[in-house]
Amino acid sequence: MTSDSAVSGRPLSDPGAEAARATAGILHDTLHGSARGVVVDSPPGAGKSTLVVHAALELAAAGRPLMIVAQTNAQVDDLVLRLAGKEPELPVGRLHSNDSDPYDKALDDLDNVRKSARAGDLAGLDVVISTAAKWAHVQGVEPWQHAIVDEAYQMRSDALLAVAGLFERALFVGDPGQLDPFTTVGSEQWAGLSYDPSGSAVSTLLAHNPDLPQHRLPVSWRLPASAAPLVSEAFYPYTPFRSGTVADDRRLAFGVPSDGSGPDRVLDEAAESGWGLLELPARHTPRTDPEAVRAVALVVRRLLDRGGAAVSEQSAEPVPLTVDRIAVGTAHRDQAAAVRAALTELGVAGVTVDTANRLQGREYDVTVVLHPLSGRPDATAFHLETGRLCVLASRHRHACIVVCREGVSDLLDEHPSTEPVQLGVTVKFPDGWEANHAVLAHLAEHRVRWEPGTA
Amino acid sequence: MDKAALASALGSPGTFGQSQFAFMRGNAFEAKVKADGGKELLRLLGIDDPAGALVPDLAAAGPEGRAARTALALREATAAGAWTLLDHPLLALDVAGSPAYVEPDAVVVGPDGRWTVVEIKSFPMIDASADSSKVGAAARQAAVYVLALERVAAVTDAAQVAPGILLVCPKDFSNLPTASVVDVRKQLSVTRRQLARLTRVEDIAAALPEGVTFDLEACSADELTAAVESVPHAYAPDCLAACELAFHCRDRARQAGAVQTLGRSVRGELGGLTTVGGVLAAARGEAGDPADPAVAALRRAAALRAEALAGTAGVPEAGVCR
Amino acid sequence: MSLIATLARLEAVESGRAQPLATVRHRRLTERPMVFVPLTTAGEAGAPLGALVGTDREEPRLLVVAQPRDRDLRSAFLAELADVLLPYVDGFGDDVELVERKETDAETGKKVTVEVELCADAAQLIVPSRAGAEFVRLLGRSMRFRRTAEQDPDTPYPAPPRVPLLGRWLTHYGERARVPGSSLLLAATDLLNRHWATGQSSLEDQHLGALLAWIDPPDGESGAQAALRAELGRDREGMLLRPPAGPATDPVFDNRRLAPAMERYDRARQLLAAAEDGESADERLGELHRAEREIRRLVADQMRPTWDAVWRALDLVRTLPEGSRVEDRWTRDRWSFTAHRDRVRAGEPPQPRRDDAVTAAQKLAARETAQAQLEAQEALDDPLVLAGRRLSGEAFVSEVIDVEMAWSESKRPSPRPLLTVRTEDHPHLGGRSAKVYRSLDGKPQTAQFVRYEEDGTLVLRVTDRMGRGKDPAEGSVPVKGDRIAWTLFEHDQRGGPKLPDPEETPWTHGGPPAGFAGGTPGSHVAEMPDLVTPEDLL
């Protein structure tokens, strides 16, 4: 796999210029186009949030009242903070729920942000932001001329149905490779319908409005040159992207040399190549495999102990790898809880440990991942879901270290993909089984075998 | 190998076989779809007012001969630039180092050199939707045909294989055909990787102990059982719908007390515990390391279950009990 | 599967008998359910072969289609089925109670109280298995668009009016069965599987005979042995001892018994048609009747064991006392039944082939609400279900060890007592201000998680349902020594947001559906009937 295979052999142009062209096209269609909607696909770390803020400011500057729809309260608060950071004078409304503690207290320090649980109180402000769930309850207001729908691929079609009456036209932005929306009840009877309520908002939108302009942010600024080709090929085979940096731009170094242990060797491998697989002996284990959990915690401990420092295009000097630049990703909540406990035991505090669902949209220098299939006796659809692996493998700027028991490729072979197929449903994404194999094959080149308890 | 006969000889016959009603209807439907030089088929492919296609004769001696005849017909049809219907062509595919032959219901060659696999099934499409597990199975089957066709296309000028196959089914409750294009790109990539990973057939044979034979005439049931046992297998309840030997394997797995007889998902929370006795002993505190999270969870589950069933310490409803 | 259910299965393996998964019954069984055991013809969509149907276990009504490819015979079957089912359904339509309900006045937009009818009970349909429920949907779909001679004098094969009407009812029941916790249409296998765990997999549990064998094995036999016999046992002639619960038949039965009998029947019909005089016609008619009786006997024999098994399943499930919140869900079923009765009486057209965008979204939202409600209600009704939620950290049972009165800091202070409770459970009380709920006289009371004490006890602050006064109402605050089950999930479910009316479907979802475009709102364009081919015979 070479770094330019993802752009199908075209000569590498300046990534900044390429990204700027894409952004200019998006803004042009949004501000001056005639279509009611514009869709933007954004791979991991391609500057989606920057684009949303940029587009919001341009629309506000053009005197067009704007509503922004995001999916979670954390995303909404984050956008409010970013907008205020860029343009402190901009009058922004934060529409929130009636629950206790409904928004980030940091918003209280912003002079031009008004907060209310009633949309009527926020009328006339340049930008009003809330979650899809809250917007769905807004009634009896004048429709907005413009909307931006963020994380649109994670929004369900029925959620869009509930809010689409609030705006005339909209910019839809999202990452098609992350976890799909889902429902806990049967919805097969609507599969194949253009407006399947359990499908993604973008699928419905495009099925009914196939002529809408569709754009793609072509450059990932987050993923290093070592990761973009793999992630692009495994998870975005039909819409490839590239890294905005080249191999020498990102470097990871340690002040303390390796002690020869498994965790240290895998750290060196990851520092060198961007990927590391710490492989424990094959064994069937419960989800909270104590050895694997401890191995994850040890890797994090050593990462901090060895005085890791990251060099990147963002600063001339090496930046120390502190706890806030490291994250641990797991498939299940109980695994995350077990890793947190193991980290506390090792005296590590402040490292983010979360499930793939909650890591969506976040970015770190180094991630340590407990492989979703590690030690499992079976491979369920949940564990094979492409989006889950994609999220876990695409949060890092420098390196990703995967901790896994041996035997996952055999497990995959025992669970061949037998997904049901619904007529009329557009294939958008590679098969989870296939993507898992592709990632494993790549990780195998960066494998460090380790038996805990030994050096 | 005739697995159904082997299963009968082992004393665990399954319930397989096809009703002649379904068989007759399936055949009649396929004939109807292909009648008149495939006019109906071309209409389903979206051709207005089709005049009918060329239907070359694919008869030849032996599978190799038939596969060669098919390849030739594909080349001629592509060169001819006219609609051509290949009825039951035979395609060769390399599986684990041995040639395997597959036979799609039909392949249609378009004037633009595009080859489309046609699968004709007798389950209905009602209001444009169909049983998703049956469509999934058809898609995986068709992906193998597409793969085999790609091999021929690679050595044929101006030929390309369509990644969408045409699935033809009866419409609603009638015997009128209707069709849907099914995108099999996912199944294709999976099939490619599976074929690449398949152990070579010789390797499987080489791994067997010497003298193992499945000769139904010559062997006793015991000898056959021993022979089947020597082949590695992993029973799961899903096997019951797919394999003639499943009831035999289930019997063996149950005798061994294997927990996966209760379903693949059961093992997910049991970690290294694999037998019914082992799990129950761990749950009752008779065995197992309490530091193992699986054992700890089992003991908690057992205690909570016992408490609820005893009803004494339990709470009649989530409220107050004084 | 939860670990508690897994344990139950393992115990079933060990003991050779199914083990309880519930201590109460979580579904309504009405006094007089209608049992429907259908069989279908292999390879044909919606070509019924026969059925046993009725409310009296001793006297099922036998319906058989001697030649399923004959349109007239199929039509007669459906008409006969309607003769049995429709009077049963209609029997629940007029026994009503009057209920007050808040509605939005169409003209003023204000909420007004109106009095509406609610059927006192509803028709209940029981089928053997999930495949049977799917067949009910299929029958409903195949019947509801049939045209009657009155609707269209030129229709090629007119149906009696009760056939499309039954199609609409079956469609309604099929849809309602998709709502979690509904009891209008139940599969016997689902009923049993909800309440017992067998020593086999959930896949094998779809076989009604094997399932019953585990729950209620014959004396001296283990569930495993009895189940094996139910699955695979065949008589000397190769016929299954326990024929499949349908609607699919055993291929061996089709090939060895049914096909020859049908051939004899077809031949007798041809001969009768070719009879040249009265005497030979009489003789040949007798032959035809004999051939038909033989098919009826064969088909009846295939269905009778299933019929008995369904009633046996009902007996078994009835031995469990009904959970206290089942009544609440059954009331929703009665509303659903009443609403469909009203649509039929108002002369509305049959349900469309596929839902429009708004209807689909509404149904999905309703089912998600019902699912959450069902999970909460089952846990509140049944300590064994609650045990599963306790294991997963979503509930905990605790003992109150101290109560300290406190009040809110407002102008009119309200009681906010602090409870110190001890629990052996491990609730996932993440983050500050997590809320927990307990049931107080059937209504949820909320408390806020305050902190863990150093000795592992929890401090909770009760925040509601203590009356309006400064002092809490009698019995509304727990006292020392109380054992209380708290849940982290809410007991009631809020409905989702209001969706637009179908005629207001937004551009993102294709705009208003064709039935509304330019037409009067609310007037669906009736769907066309299905195409029929002149020859059904393939």
Q: How would you characterize this protein structure?
A:
The complex is a heterotrimer of chains A (455), B (322) and C (538). The relative contact order of chain A is 0.13. Mean pLDDT of chain A is 91; it is low at 1-11. Chain A has helices at 15-32, 48-61, 73-86, 132-135, 157-163, 201-208, 228-235, 262-273, 290-305, 333-345, 356-359, 381-384, 386-392, 408-414, 432-443; strands at residues 37-41, 66-70, 92-95, 113-116, 127-131, 144-149, 167-174, 214-216, 219-220, 242-243, 251-254, 275-280, 308-312, 315-320, 326-330, 352-355, 364-370, 396-405, 447-449. Chain A is of the alpha/beta class and 455 residues long. Among the domains of chain B are: 54-197, no CATH class; 256-312, no CATH class. In chain B, strands 1, 4, 5, 6, 7 and 8 form a 6-stranded mixed sheet that branches. Chain B has a two-stranded antiparallel ribbon with strand order 2-3. The longest helix of chain B has 25 residues, at 20-44. Mean pLDDT of chain B is 83; it is low at 312-322. Chain C has 538 residues and is of the alpha+beta class. Chain C has 2 domains: 8-245 and 305-353, no CATH class; 382-487, Elongation Factor Tu (Ef-tu), domain 3. In chain C, helix 6 runs antiparallel to helix 7 (223-232). The longest helix of chain C has 41 residues, at 278-318. The model of chain C is unreliable at 517-524 (pLDDT under 50). Chains B and C meet through helix 2, helix 9, helix 10 and strand 9 of B and helix 1, helix 3, helix 7, helix 8 and helix 11 of C. Strand 9 of chain B pairs antiparallel with strand 15 of chain C, so a sheet runs across the interface.
Could you name the key traits of this structure?
heterotrimer, A: 455 residues, alpha/beta, 8-stranded parallel beta sheet, 19 strands, C: 538 residues, alpha+beta, Elongation Factor Tu (Ef-tu), domain 3, 2 domains, 6-stranded antiparallel beta sheet, 5-stranded mixed beta sheet, 15 strands, globular
Quick take:
The complex is a heterotrimer of chains A (455), B (322) and C (538). By secondary structure, chain A is an alpha/beta fold.
Number of helices of chain A: 15
Number of separate helices of chain C? 12
Number of strands of chain C: 15
The major beta sheet of chain A can be summarized as: 8 strands, parallel
The largest β sheet of chain C comes out as: 6 strands, antiparallel
Indicate how many domains the architecture of chain C comprises.
Answer: 2
The stretches of 5 or more residues of chain C where confidence is low (pLDDT under 50) are 517-524
Strand count of chain A: 19
- Main-sheet strand order of chain A equals 4-3-5-2-6-7-1-8
Spatial order of the strands in the main sheet of chain C?
A: 12-13-14-11-10-15
State Rg of chain C: 29 Å
> End-to-end span of chain A in angstroms?
32 Å
Radius of gyration over C-alpha positions of chain A, nearest whole angstrom: 22 Å
Helix content of chain A: 25-40%
Indicate the proportion of strand residues of chain A. 15-25%
Structural class of chain A: alpha/beta
Q: Taking all residues together, what is the mean pLDDT of chain A?
A: 91
Structural class per helix/strand content of chain C? alpha+beta
Biggest protein-protein interface?
B-C, 69 and 75 residues
Shape category of chain C:
globular
